[in-house]
Each structure stands twice: as C-alpha cells, then as structure tokens.
Amino acid sequence: MGFQENLLSIIIFLPLLGVLFGAFINKDNKSAIKWFTLIVSLIEFIVSLFLVIHFDSSSVGMQFTEKYTWIPVYNIDYRIGIDGLSLLLILLTTFLTPLVLLGSWTYIKKREKEYYLWFLVLETGMIGVFASLDLILFYVFWEAMLIPMYIIIGVWGGPRRIYAAVKFFIYTMFGSLLMLVAIIYLYFAYGAQTGTYTFDLLKLYNLSLPLSTQIWLFAAFALSFAIKVPIFPFHTWLPDAHVEAPTGGSVILAGVLLKMGTYGYMRLAMPLFPIAANAFLPYLAVLAIIGIIYGALVAMMQPDIKKLVAYSSVSHLGLVILGLMALNIESVDGAVLQMINHGLSTGALFMLVGMLYERRHTRELSEFGGIAKTMPVFATIFMIATLSSIGLPGLNGFIGEFLILIGSFFARPIYAVFAGTGVILGAVYMLRTYQKVFWGKITNKANEDLKDLSAREIIVMIPILIMIVWIGVYPKPFLNIIHNASESYIQYVKPQAAPIHDQQSTVPQMPERLK
Amino acid sequence: MYVDVNYTAILPQIIIAATLFISAMADAFTSTRKWPVGMIALLGIGAGIGSSIYLWGDKIISFSQMISMDEFSLLFFITVMIAGFITVLISLKYVDDVESDAGHFYLLLLSSLLGMMFLVSATNLIVIVLGLELMSFSIYPLVGFTRDRQVSLEGAMKYLVLGAFATAFLLYGIALLYSVLGTTNLYTIAKILSTSQNPTGNMVMMAGVALILIGFSFKVALVPFHAWTPDAYQGAPAPITGFMAAAVKAASFAAIIKVVIVVMSSYHVPVAEAMWWLSAVTMFTGNIIAVMQKNVKRMLAYSSIAHAGYVVVGLVSGNAYGMSSAVFYLISYTFTITGSFAIITYLEKNDGTGTELSDFSGLSKTHPVLSIIMAVFMLSLAGIPPTAGFMAKFYVFSSAIKSGYTGLAIFGILTSVISLYYYLRIVYAMYFEEPEEKANMPVPAGISAGVIIALWGVIQLGILPSDIMNLAMQSIQSLLH
Fold this sequence. Notes:
The structure holds 2 protein chains of 2 kinds. Chain A is mainly alpha-helical. Chain A has a domain at 273-499. Chain A contains 19 helices and 2 strands. Chain A is globular, with a radius of gyration of 22 Å. Chain B has one domain (7-480). Chain B contains 19 helices and 2 strands. Chain B has helices at 11-29, 35-55, 71-98, 104-121, 125-143, 150-181, 186-195, 203-220, 229-235, 238-264, 268-291, 296-316, 320-347, 363-366, 368-382, 388-402, 406-432, 445-463, 466-480; strands at residues 60-62, 67-69. The longest helix of chain B is centred in the middle third of the chain and has 32 residues, at 150-181. Chain A binds chain B through residues 70-74, 111, 114, 136, 139-140, 143-144, 146-147, 150-151, 154-155, 161-162, 165-166, 169-170, 173-174, 177-178, 180-181, 184-185, 187-188, and chain B through 364-365, 368, 375, 379, 384-386, 390, 394, 397-398, 401-402, 406, 409-410, 413-414, 416-417, 420-421, 424, 427-428, 431-432, 464-466, 469-470, 473.
C-alpha cells in the first residue's frame, strides 16, 4: 500500500470515507455538514489532480492499474485502471462535485445532512464506474450509483419527483440487467474459447465471437447505454428526471451520469463486439442524428427553461454518439472532448437556472424578460454558458463540435450536414431563450428587484467559466490526454481488413492529421 | 437386524432436542415473563451452530443409512439455526407482550428447527416425511399464535389443510416409488436408477417422482401450489413469517435438492422441463401479484414466492454448479428476509396492524438508521449490488446461462425488473413520504441485535461472497459422493 500505487483506489473511496465520518455530525449542525462535505470534496479534487501529474499521455493502455483478488470462485477481481478517457471523466466528476455541493447551500432546505452525504456516496459510485476494468466491478458501481441518485431526485426533487425517480430507476435498471446477462454470457464464451474464465475487460477485448452471437451481446450492452445517454428513442426518462431533480442532481445527472452511457459505448459495447458494432454503426449514427435534431426541435418548444436545457442534452449527446460512430481520430477526439464540454456548459446552465429558480420559484420563460438590468453579473455568466453550449469559437463547445462535424464529414458527408443543422437549431433556441429572459423591458413586476448573484454563487460559477475559456482557447493539453484512448478505440472497432465505411468517390480522402 | 448407531451423526439435533427439553422445564418454572426461556433457546441454538461448525468436514452416514451428516446437512443446519436464532432474538419482546405465559412459542420454534434438521440430513424418504411433518406441525400453531385474530387463524387453517394435501402427495409419490423399487433409501434408489435401462418408460415411477416434486412444491410455494402462502404469511406474527420465509423454505429446498440430484441422472429431460416451467411461472406470478399489494407482509409473501422461483432456476440445470447457486441463494435470502421481518416485527402492533405500506411513510425521519438498513434489505431482495441479493441472482443466473438456459435467465431478469417496483415502493414510502403522527417507541435490544446479524450477512455475502460460495460448492460436492 502506498499513496502512488493506490492513488486510484484512494480517489474512489475517499468520498465514502467522508460519508462514514460525516455520519457522526449532528444533523442540526447544518453549517458543519456543509463545510465538512465541501472540504472532503475539495480534498478529493486535489488528490485527483495527482492523476494528471503522474499521467503519461504518451503511453498507450491503462495506467494506475491496481488488482486485488475479489471473488476467486469466479475470477472476479478488483481491477481498476484509467486511460485518458477515464481520466478526464474522473476529473470532471471531482471538479463538478464540490461546485454542486457549494451551489446547493441555500437551495436545499430540508434534511441537509442526508443530501450532502448522498452526494459523496454518488461521487464514489461515479468514479468507480470510470475506473473499473473488471466487468462485474463495473456493474456493481454502475448499479450502486443509481441508489443515491434515486434518493436525491425522490426526496429533494420537484412536485412530480416520485414519478421521475421511479421512472429513472426502472428504466436504467431494465437496460443494465440485460447487460448483466450479456456480461455473464461473455464470461462463459471466453472461457469456452480460451479455457480461462475472466471478467477482465482488457482480456475480453481479444475474444472473437461470430457475428450472430455478437449481435445479441452488443444489443444488450448498447441498449443499456442507449438508455443512459440517452439516444433517441430511449430518452423519455430524461426530461422527467432532469426537471424534477434538485439543481445539484440535474448538474450531476447531465454532467456526469449521461457520460456513463457514452463512456460505455466507447469502453465496452463497441470494442468488445467490433463486428456487431460495425453492423449497427449506421443505425446508431442515424439515431444519433435524429436525436440531435429532435432534441433541438423539442427544446425550442419548451416553455420551461430547465426542460429546455434537458432536451438540449439529448441533442448534444447525440452529437457525441455521432462522433463515436464516425470512427476517425478527429471525430472521436471531438466526442470525448465534447463529453467534457457538455458536462461543463450544461452543468453551468442547470446551476444558473437553479439560481434563477431560487429567486423566483418559477422557470417559465414567459415569466421573465429584461432581467439583464437587475442581474447583470448573472446575465453575463449565463451568456458565456449559452455561447459555450452553442459552440461559439473561442469557447470550449466550438472545439468539440467542430472536430465531430469534421470527422463525421469524412465518414459520410451527409451525417455532417444533418448534424450541422442540429447545431444551428441549437444556436437558435439557446439565443432566443437568452433574449426572452434577459433582454427587453421588465414586464413582470416580480423581476424588478431580483438580487444579483451572491459571492458564493459567483465562486461556484467562476471555475466552470475558466474551464470553458481554457478548453476553448488552448485545448491541446486535453486533446493530448484523450488522443491515445481515441486511437486504441478506433483500432479495436475499425475493421482491419475491409473498411465498412465506403470510401467511394463522393467521400473526400482524409487529409493528414488536422493537428 | 443390526442397526448402526452413531450419535455424532445427530449431535446438532441432540443439542436442539436437549434445548427443547430444558426450555420446556424452564417454561414450567418461570412466571408470566418468558424471556428466560428465550435466552435458553438462544444459547441452545448457538451451541447447535457451534457444533455444526465443529463437525464441518466430517461425513457420517448412520442409522441404517437414514441420516447423513455431511457438509450439505451441516450448511443447512447452520442456515436454519441462524434463522431460528434471529427469530428468537426478535421475538423476545413480542412473546411477552402478546400474552402472558406464552413460553410455548419458543418450544414450538425449537421443535420445528429439530424437524428441519432431520429433514435436511435425511437420506431416506420416510425420514424426510417425518422431518417435514415435525417441522410443519410445529409451524401451524405458530401461524395461528394470536388466537383472537381471525386473519391469523384463517392463515393457520389454510396452511394446515394445504400442508396436509402436500404430505398426501408426497406420501403417495413415495408409495409409488416403493411399489416399483422396493426401497425408500435414496442411495439405493440412486443406484437402481443409474443402472436401469429405460427409467422414463416406467409410468408408475414417473408419476411417483412427479407427485414427490408436487408435494415439495407446496412446501416451498411454487406457483400453482402457492395459494396458502399469502394468508399464512400475513396472518402469522411477523417473526414467524420471517422464519417461514427463511428456514422452512431453505429446509424444504434442501430436501428438493436431494431428491432432484437422485432422480436427475435418469429423468433429466422431464425434470428439467418441469423445473423450467415452474420457475418461470413462479417468478412471473409472484412478482406481478406482489406489485398490487398494499400490506407489506403480504407483499413480501408474494415476493417470497417469486424468490422460490429464482432458487428453482438454479435447480433447472441439475448440475453441481446450479445446485450450489441455489444453496447460496437460500443462504442470502435467509439473511435478507429475516432482517426485513425483524424490522417489520418492530413496526407490527400486537393486534397485527402496523404493517401497511402507509405505516412505513416517513420512517426515515423518525428512524434514519433503521430505514437505511431496511432499504439495504429491500435492495438485496431486488438484487442490486453490493448486497447479498445481487450476488445470489448473479450466481443463479450465471449457472443457468452456463448450462444453456439463457432464455430462462433473461426471463428471470425481466421479472426482477418488475420486482424493483414494489421493493422501491417501500424505500420510497420511507424516504419520500411524510410521516404520520405516531408514538416513537424505542427499538428493543433483541430486534437491534437481530437486524445487525442479518445486515452483517447481507453485506458480507454482497461484498465478499467467495467463502460462502465455496461452502455451497463443498456442500453439494459432499452430496454427490
């Protein structure tokens, strides 16, 4: 045991340790609980930065690996490790959690102790998902993480919270149980082929199953992740869960939980079953494009700002999936970066909407107008988040979207055309919303004496803004971290002999690397 | 005739029988408060568990091959005795509250434990019936323990009548087998079957095996032989319901496993097929009807039906792997369900009310620790990691997939999605609903202790299941040799 050898385990279980200690704080001592959980999550963030320091972005494969025997009867191991993809998602998690905790200080007014502790439990679950390299360990974290989210939505959510919480839980569970069957099947199939039984993800990559088997297994994995992402038409749980969840819940839901779906595609579904993946690829790409456009169109119609942001997630995540399906380095790099970007910008938007809700207890678009005059700081921050979300050059969203669009253009130009339309629609509804809320004359008396952001709220937003600008201006360090993970993903998935993607005359040949 | 007698083979049974005797004495000599009797029962059961652990690894077949003390029986001894131990712990307060001079509660519990232990260690069909009857006849009066409650009596009556049916089926099946084979000894039966040319051609034999399986299906409440369960479970006092769901079920399943192993070699196709359908129908029906229940005891009654279906999934394959997964499932279910009923015991009032879903509303506010533990038990029943229930389902379904029953595994998993709804219903009553005004009684020490033991089991089996999986495997191996 040492700090460096067990760094990843420490990061996974530190929040849980915090919960054990936090449980002894008197529940009436609210400020102690708030400060305690905030400090735990800040320490967690600082510790997770050590991952960046020691991360070697030039090496291919998993780093910080740890392995302990867990259930020898099944050769199930506690096996963890990360590559660039997991690293960024873990950092996103540890980065957002303290902000969410701090952001909830005035929003949550009942049962505070449980709220903050559940968030730390959730953090352990999320990081565990991104770090697991054993399928059963992955599954355990994947499922265990549902419980805190279920409780967070169900206890602290809006009026229809119970419906939303149950729907969220059962939808996700339905998909993941089928995945469990596929995992077990995979285990025996690997054992039958090689004689050794293992749930080790990296070993299972080498398994080659016939297409007829792969199709079923891929379908089980893909369905589970499609529900999580969510890919159209499996998205119906998302608006309910997002809208009913408390602000903190929505931020983590959009910021991190949805990424588990895209992460699942990239880490598990596609590389484990490459033949089936290639067979399904065009359909998934089409579903992704439908999602991009459908999400944007529905968002445009929403009278409720939070619902609008929720539907915009469907659209943005569609873009990420499209990037993963286009299978070239630009699009995949872009997709991974866009996962982070979406976490930042949508997280920021949910927080801002929550701050507005705290002041006015409504999220109806028609209730607002002209509040840029009363809340100038708020309006500025909201503007930056909006522009980041619609992909303005110079901010993070642009880099991700641009890479995805360019990559999917190389795959099939028509993809890029449709996806581009979705992006434009995104700009339309976001800007229109901004205009309706902030500009014009104050028509509603209730908006006349709104308080601008407090110092605490500004402190919550500033780190996100810094990241938004940083990635937008200088994305290279991030892309460096991502690069090897994307390449090995493509290597696993792309058919070696005959490329499935038609390199016909209509498709321009790919130029030398764009970087 | 020479009879080989080796008392070591029934040492745990002797200990429980002695405890029964001493408790009866103590019952006669104590006044109206009966907790000393309970304490003696606890000590005795503890000694029984200790002796079973001490005997682990030995294999003694004795009493003219009627009793086999092997790792299989010992593992089930320990399982049912743990269930009995927790049940006594959580009943300590109940027994003294419900009526004065109720020491026979413990005596009946001990004698049913004794019956179970003979049942799981029997290697002769007649002894199986004897054990089963001793177990059942001690349970019937416990179900109707609160004599002035109509629901309780109705449940006991139904249980008695249908239990008699089950025994009739069982005995008739044994008679048919005996008419063909001339023996009731399981070893001899296994030997004859393995050498016979065309076992499936003999309709009398087939009918015999079928009737025996039907008899047992009544006892473990497989659909369509489950009709007694909801009433008996709802009518019985909560600790007894937990005891029935855990121990009675485990012991009856132990007998099923023995019989299935004996007949599986010759009747693989019909038995596997029958098991397939029984498990599929049971999982589906149990879970669907449980969704509609408003009373938590009744809900868990239907859920226990469904869980019996999951255990049968492990039996379908008929191989050692599947059998040991069933054993593991029973152990994990024992901990989970006794723990759940420990908490229900706390909520149940002496007139039998207090177990509606609405009685759980807002429990997390008044009893934060108790409700989080209850939530863990519910998640374990639903099969969500990192709890015992997940590992148990994982084990059972992987045995089915390994043996090529992927369809059954998928079906089982889909039914467990249904089950999520009602288990979460309890969690959400506790967490999302506001509490009604109610007196905040302290949690009795016995119940706390019982809950902690059960919670330890659920977490231990959920996070580090390897040891128990090995024990389950060993126990089945000891049966096969």
